[in-house]
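Table 4 source record.
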Amino acid sequence: MPASPAFSNAVQPLRTRLLDSPLPGWWDAGVEAVAGLLPQGLRRRIGAQKRALLLSLSGETLRLRAETDRRIVELGNLPMDAELLANLRARLDAQAGGVGRWLLLDPSQVLRRSLTLPSSAEPRLREVLAHEIDRQTPFPADQVVFETRVLGRDTATKQLQVELVVVPRAVLDAQLEALGPLADRLVGVDVADGEGARLGVNLLPTAQRGAGGDRDRWLNRGLVVATVLLLLMAMLQVLDNRRTALAEVRQRVDEANKQIVGVRLLRNSLGSSRQAADFLAKKRGQQPTMLELLADLTRRIPDGTSLEKLAVNQGKIVMIGQSQEAPALVGLLQGSSLIRTPALAGAVQRDVRTGKDRFTLTANMVGATAEVRDGGQR
């Protein structure tokens, strides 16, 4: 099997599902909504505005109507004069060359038949209906021009509702011949519906369809599509740049937050160190210095007394030594402004070698915790 038919058969189920879905309707509605936002001039230039010149023959009169976005405006009637038709074509080519020209046949000139076919016939719909012309019309297939259109699809029963539109070739040729020079630039031949608008088929053979306006329209549409794609790419690039910039800003913010946390920890540490330093300084201010203590003890302890050990621990003073008058030391130290609660610890023992009394004396330094625990200042 050739490649093209094979590919067509492969994608036909997907195409049928797409046509059965509401997506085509949504797409058309979206395109019309977007096109409606554009200015009239721009819509006309890019081909988004659906415009057509409708030509109808009635005896020896040519009826002209303009169709713009499905709205039809009556332009007027002309007599079927060869010179007038030539002038009309020249003016249309010069001023409205991009507007498609359609010949509208009267409904009495065509034959329409509604048929129900299996959905599987849609890929070869034209071939299937070509065999139905002999049965559905009184004309042989080689004497008519026909077109088909799908009226509906029933997915439940897998059936297709179609319409066969047939016009005798002699009638079509007579109409084209009557148009004279205007027939050369026709883009299609349609049938007028009940309201005088186009039915939606094209009975003009493909070889006879004018393409000048279509080429311009498709070129403009291609340019518009290219412009939209470039704009979309630019927007995506801008969005990516902003996303990158946002990521960089967030990274800088995270780094700044980490620095702030470090600064707060350092500030708290400094605050704790300052409080500890203030506490120590306050404690030092409440207690005398070692030099002051030694100077006071030197003044109050008599010459017959010698100290073997002097220890100061957390405001607690312990003195060990020998003295000729150990019991009197308590009274001597009670007058000190730096020492509180002096007392002998344990019994006083006489040293046989020196003849002096060995003593252990304890006291509290002024402002020490031990002093407050033992009863405070007196």
